[in-house]
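Reopening this one. Same input as before:
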Amino acid sequence: MPLPFLSYTDDDIFQCLNGVLLAWALLIVAPKWRPTQAIVLLSAMFYSALYAALIFNMIYQGGALDFAAMSTLPGVAKLFATPEAVLPAWVHYIAFDL
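Same output, byte for byte:
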């Protein structure tokens, strides 16, 4: 489910998510280097905004989230069985674990 304001497919967006590796590499190699903090912060802000846009788009397109199902393991497994849910979940993982 591509974002309406971008001309990229979900697959294109997924391929670009590896850009976070620069921030992770800087955290490992040069954690005290002054630009590291700015690059990590900007990366986290970018991926957080992308996550919000993907969730908003999923809800706007009619993909209602079943919050009750998210409290059980089978419910989460069923949710992640759809590609429309996997991309936002992966972006969430990238954004909030950075």
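So the earlier flakiness isn't reproducible anymore. For the record, Helices lie at 10-16, 20-29, 34-60, 73-79, 83-97.
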